[in-house]
Every structure is written in structure tokens, then in C-alpha cells.
Amino acid sequence: MQPSSRLDRLPPYLFAELERKITERKAAGVDVISLGIGDPDTPTPDVVIDALAAGARDPGTHQYPSNRGRPELREAFARFYDRRFGVALDPDSEIIPALGAKECVFNLSLAFLDPDTVALAADPGYPVYTGGPLLAGAEAVLMPLVPELSFAPDLDAIGTDVAARARLLFLNYPNNPTGAVVPDGLFERAVEFGREHDVLIVHDASYTETTFDGYVAPSFLETPGAKEVGVEVFSLSKGWNMTGWRTAAIVGNPDAVAAYWKLKTNIDSGMFEAVQLAAIAALDAGAPAEMVSIYKRRRDLVCNALHEIGVDVTPPRGTIYVWAPVPEGHTSASYCEMVLEESGVVVSPGGAYGPNGDGFFRISLTVSDERLAEALERLRGSLSAS
Ligand SMILES: Cc1ncc(COP(=O)(O)O)c(C=O)c1O
Prior knowledge:
7-stranded mixed sheet; alpha/beta; binds pyridoxal-5'-phosphate
């Protein structure tokens, strides 16, 4: 048996590796607290579950779905975008449901990249922005995100050769893993860049519904000209506690949406229609506001505890993560390994999101306040020693 050589180009997927280590520690009897993956710990809203249950009882949902999605679902996305962002979308040509943002981001790489072409990916960034291009046989060129530039990529620093070969540029705000919100002017600059270099701008809007302190995250498509050069990937996973449901959509530029759809018809057979009905209920109800207050409370708990220990963190205005510096003398990998080993706490090493993430670790706010507080108590020794 010989797996393809393209698999050799990939590092192990971050969370697969973490899962293996957690299983190992648990088998050794350790009470592991995992602040690794960002997987909401509270249930999906009842209104969504009720719609799924009713939909599943209707035999009309049991056959192959259309890969375009039910018209009612595309209309629900359009209604949501209009109400939430003031963005008008044509349900017939500018919206296709996706089986999660991950599927969509990955398939965009297959749909748009050839060997010798480039995808521009944030460093640090969600690993699929680099894994997708590699699996497509193309190259991922990293754009550093640094605190000094408010975690905006410097699009003026991209060399002309790279820009000429670029086909995709991935952005994501509120940002995983840094928690940054979109810096002023970045979306406008991205539209210019897309026009200048004929690059499709892909904005991953996985966290727009989870923001704090009065901040309201915009859609990239609110930016004048954005629909000419870009698409947005909108996911229900985090805002609605629906990670297991695999519900998202690609919205925006109709040519890009059509290319994605053409690829997708060859790869999967769409979203279970009962899940589509549940997604309609979710979109019409809006993201549950109580989740935002839960994450805000946990964010404050974590940031206050870190400040008290003397760790310099900026409370994020969006996402479900806190991004913190590792103690001096550690790489992010060595620190995260040490705390798992010594404290049974899993945090994500910043370096796994790209070289500019090294020196940081990411805490996910998706466990109860009590477990978070206990995890921070266990981390106290390792952090105050810095
Ligand atoms: C930036 C970003 N994009 C996409 C995803 C995956 O979302 P989905 O569950 O919709 O596939 C995640 C999950 O953590 C993420 O952080």
C-alpha cells in the first residue's frame, strides 16, 4: 500500500496530534483539562434541534440533497446577510451551502490553484489556509501577522513575483488564533490588492457573531467593491454551537461561487436536507446572545487571572480564544508539552499556526468557568516562573 506523495507534504493536523497526546495522558490516569480545540461546550439552541427533528421525520428529506442547497436555505442566508450586515446577495448565484468552513476553504484551494500558483495565507493562521494549497499542489506564501501592525498582513510587502503568481488570499477576522478584530482599512486594501493582481480574496467569517465590549464585526462584503474580487465563508459552527452539524456557506462573487460549486458537485453530495431546515431556523433566530455573555465572562476570567500572574495579554474583542505569550526560555511547543506533562492542561502551541505564532499559546474558552479557573490555577506556577 502506498499513500500519495502529496500526503508527505503535510504536517500532522494540529488537533489530531493533540488528541493523541490527550488520550495518552488520560490513559495514564491524568485529569486532563483541554483548552486546545475551540469546540463550544454548550448545546445547539432548541429551535435548531426542533427543526432538525421535524425535518428528519419528513421522508422528503431522506434522499440525495441538491448540492446547491434548498432555495429556502439560500434565501435564509440572504435574509441573514441583509439583516445582519446590510449586504444584498442573490440566492440563485451568490450563495452555496458548505459542509463547514473547513470544507469550503479547502475546496477553494482545489478550485483555484494550479501547480506554480500561490495562496497567500496569514501567519499565524488557521492551518487549512496552508494545508489546502499544499494538497492542491500549489504553494502557500505566509503573510506575517504581528501585534505592531494590529495583526493585519502588510499587503504592500508582498513581492511582485509572488503577487503575480497569487490566485487566493485568505483573511479571517475576528481572527483565529490571535483574537484580533479587523484593523481599519484592511478590507479596503484587500479589495485594491485583489483588483491589482487578479486575486480572489477569501474572507473566513467564522467568528463574526462572537464579539465583546460592544464591538460588532463587519462582513468583508460590506466593503465597496468586495463582491467584485471576493467571497466570504460564513459558518454557523461557533456562533450557534453547531460544530458537529457541518453548516456553512460560501457567499459573494458569483463566478467564484460557481467554480466552487463545479468542484463540489464532483466531491460531495451536499448537506442533509433536515440539517438545511435546521440551518434556516438557526439563521432566522440569529446567533444566541447568551453565548456571547458566557464567552465574555470566561475571557475576563482568563485575562484577569493572567494579568494577576503578570502575563501580558490583550483581552480579545472577538473569537473564543485568548492569545498569550509563553514564558521566557520556551518555544510554544516546549511550553505546551511541559504544561500537558506537568499540569494535565492542554493549550495550543502558537507555532502550530505558523512561525509568527511561536512565542505564544492559545487558550480556548470552551470549557466551564470552574474548569477554566482550575486550569489557570494549574498553569500559575509555570507562568509566574517567567
Ligand atoms: C478560522 C477558522 N475557520 C474555519 C474553522 C472551521 O469551521 P467549520 O466548523 O465551519 O468547518 C475554524 C475552526 O476552528 C476556524 O477557526
